[in-house]
Design brief:
The chain has 8 helices and no strands. Helix 2 crosses helix 5, helix 2 runs parallel beside helix 8 and helix 3 packs antiparallel against helix 4. The longest helix has 52 residues.
């Protein structure tokens, strides 16, 4: 006779999920080592330059979250499924988390480079606008309910947030501003070889980190929606029983 308390089988997706987190954790530890020990100290900026290895990859991870929110929002408007809605919501939450990191580390850099924590630079301003849009998305989902109408309105907000991404990316080229371009030599003097190694490893690591967080949040989101639906079904059955009694 089958054991009623047997653990559920581990699927291939579960194995890939746990393997992704294992690899990501190892790479994150290496990024900390690379940023603070392996990479040489930049002569002009000093230790503050090491913020770059977390600031720029966090901005890239914010783009990934915003793209996921956009794709999930489009998918939900077309299919109305829990998975698409969970992807959109997870992407918005990721955009807020990594956007907050960007908007925290950026002023720390700016205080050293410009002498001010904040300037109304085009890239800084448009990034702040995106962060506020995704905060509004999360507030809407948290307090406005979880009905079809609220989900559709949130999806429209997720699409609006994605429309700002190209503006952020090309703002330095189109509107100049003070934000540096440090990856290419023609922009901000380029990076030394060891700095480039650490930076691109950090960029790859934060990409995996963003995917792992998205995957985790979507899994949790789908389970939350199924649980809420099951609880509602149980309540409805209880009301029916009381009515019959």
């Amino acid at each position: 006779m089958a054991n009623k308390h047997a653990s559920p089988a581990v699927t291939g997706a579960d194995t890939a999920f746990y393997a992704l987190w294992l690899v990501t954790t190892g790479l994150l530890l290496f990024c900390i080592y690379g940023a603070f020990i392996y990479a040489p100290e930049e002569r002009a900026m000093g230790i503050v330059q090491r913020i770059f290895y977390f600031h720029a990859p966090s901005a890239y991870a914010m783009y990934i979250g915003a793209t996921a929110c956009f794709v999930g929002s489009i998918g939900y408007l077309l299919r109305r499924t829990d998975v698409w809605d969970a992807l959109a919501r997870a992407g918005a939450e990721m955009s807020v988390v990594f956007g907050a990191i960007v908007m925290t580390t950026g002023p720390l850099w700016g205080a050293k480079a410009w002498g001010y924590l904040w300037v109304w630079d085009p890239r800084l301003t448009t990034t702040l606008l995106s962060l506020l849009i995704y905060i509004a998305y999360i507030v809407l989902r948290a307090f406005a309910g979880d009905g079809p109408g609220e989900r559709k309105f949130a999806a429209a907000l997720g699409i609006l947030g994605a429309a700002n991404l190209p503006i952020i990316h090309f703002s330095v080229e189109k509107w100049a501003g003070q934000h540096p371009k440090v990856i290419m030599a023609k922009g901000g003097g380029g990076l030394q070889h060891d700095m480039k190694v650490v930076f691109f490893i950090a960029l790859f690591t934060f990409t995996l980190f963003a995917i792992a967080l998205l995957w985790s949040r979507v899994r949790i989101g789908v389970l939350e929606q199924r649980l809420a639906r099951a609880e509602q079904d149980a309540v409805d059955l209880g009301l029916d029983d009381r009515t019959e009694a």
